[in-house]
Amino acid sequence: MSPANLLKEPICKWGRKAIEKNLELLSADVVAAPRFICSKCGRAAAQKKNLCKAKKLPY
pTM, whole model, 2 decimals? Predict the structure, then answer.
C-alpha cells in the first residue's frame, strides 16, 4: 500500500510491516508532538483522525 493510502486510515489498523516500511513518514508527520492516544491499542498521534478511538492527552 502506498504511503498516501496508508495515511487515509488510522495508524491503529497499520500492520507491523507497514509501520516498519513507513517509519520516517510516521515520525515526521503522524506521531511528532502527539496530542491524542488510542484507547484501544495505545498508539499516539498528533491528530485525532490518525487513531480509531482517540482520546485527548491531558497536557
Answer: 0.82
Domain residues for 23? Answer: 3-56
Q: Which residues of the chain have pLDDT under 70?
A: 1
- Find all residues with CB under 8 Å of 46, minimum gap 6, and list them: 29, 30, 31, 32, 33, 34, 35, 36
Dig out the grid coordinates for 13 from the structure: 489498523
Buried b (16+ CB within 10 A) or exposed e, 4-34: eebbeebbbebeeebeeebeebbeeebbeee
